[in-house]
Amino acid sequence: MNQFSPVSRPNNLDAFWMPFTDNRYYKSHPRLLARAEGMNYYTADGMEVLDGTAGLWCCNAGHGRREITEAIQKQAAVMDFAPTFQLGHPLAFEAAARVADMTPDGMDRVFFTNSGSESADTALKIALAYQKARGQAQRVRLVGRERGYHGVGFGGMSVGGIGGNRKQFGAMLPYVDHLPHTHNLAKNAFTRGLPQHGAELADALEGLVTLHGDTIAAVIVEPMAGSTGVLVPPVGYLQRLRDLCDKHGILLIFDEVITGFGRVGTDFGAERFGVTPDIITMAKGLTNAAVPMGGVAVKNDIYEAVVNGSADGIELFHGYTYSGHPLASAAAIATLDLHRSEDLPGRAKAMEGYFEDAAHSLKGTDKVIDVRNIGLVAGIELAPRAGKPGARAMEVFRTCFDNGVLTRVTGDIIAISPPLIAEKQHIDRIFGTIAEAVKAVD
């Protein structure tokens, strides 16, 4: 057990401007987490809260893992920081090799970042650098997808497709376009796993090529869109997108910040869906969220084109002070050791059927208009209140928390993604609490 002496609440809540939060509401109705262990958070007053979201899709091995904590402590005592600009330290190289062992064959080069947002922007820049290195400097356009989420940097927001994340900030990057999203309640509601309808939506890329010619550098999509409410790809959709990218000389980027590291029952979503992209972005589960870290894995020929196609000196003018940070590298190595020794993807795959049945038990519940799932992820979509989109789901979120279960709310969708160590009793409690909360709200 983690030993600590928490205060009941901070002296004041004013100084911290909270991210993606209704600050005015929260600071008059605070919900404070003070400790975490295994499958649970604990509030400052000692209430147990079952974690139905792995923090924010990230604590795949559960909370308070001694192996990760000790690795961080040990490294902090040896060397707290080392720059990776023109220098290096052993753990960064070891962590990169561990990641490369998990990525698809031929994807053995890893660039470290500090978050999923930085990973998205890094992937976009690498795509542009690669196209220029191979003599395709006219390829400056980037294509995202409606309802896509690629973090909150200006690059990720530009290719992202969430209106609320964009409307306050004016113009985004130039030369960006979008594919349609694949969500179709009329044809695919209450699908278990991959929906049958929607593969043809990938053909919209042909229209963008007709419009923009050979100026498209890359397409970036989440294999499964998580932050917009668990949008599972239709059967054949990702393969169709892969084929079109190959046909037109376009790089395909998978944002696997959520689907990476076991969430869908395999190391990465690329393996689960049977489609290998050119670039994979990652974060979250890479360190079990113990230390912020992200990464970008690229096919070897992309690395070779950029590095060997450049003049002597720096080949890619990009990086972060904390790229490959020693403490993050130590956390990543320890996390990936757990990933392997406990077979977290296998545990997720073994529990998927039970999880799926529990999620779909909500079908027929008043106000539930869809349930969808893949791996240990589920989205429960609620009918919105007239004139108040998102209000009903937010009330369900708060009710569940007060009843001891943490969920995730995005629009009118409750998203569930527990740690991959979840057992049947945890799943029963999560979906039972959601069912009661949905019935209780107006």
Separation, N- and C-terminal Cα atoms = 39 Å
Task: Tell me the helix content.
Answer: 25-40%
Shape: globular
CATH architecture of the largest domain: 3-Layer(aba) Sandwich
Strand content: 15-25%
Q: Can you describe this structure?
A:
One of its GO terms (biological process) is biotin biosynthetic process. This protein is an alpha/beta fold and 442 residues long. It has two domains: 23-61 and 343-440, Aspartate Aminotransferase, domain 1; 69-341, Type I PLP-dependent aspartate aminotransferase-like (Major domain) (Aspartate Aminotransferase, domain 2), CATH 3.40.640.10. It has helices at 23-28, 54-57, 66-78, 90-102, 116-133, 154-159, 163-166, 185-188, 204-212, 237-248, 269-273, 300-308, 326-341, 344-360, 391-402, 424-440, and strands at 33-37, 40-43, 48-51, 109-113, 141-145, 176-179, 216-221, 251-255, 279-282, 294-298, 368-374, 377-382, 405-406, 408-410, 413-416. A seven-stranded mixed sheet has the order 4-10-9-8-7-5-6, sandwiched between helices. Mean pLDDT is 96; it is low at 1-5.
Features:
442 residues; seven-stranded mixed beta sheet; Aspartate Aminotransferase, domain 1; four-stranded mixed beta sheet; Aspartate Aminotransferase, domain 2; 16 helices; 37% helix; alpha/beta; disordered N terminus
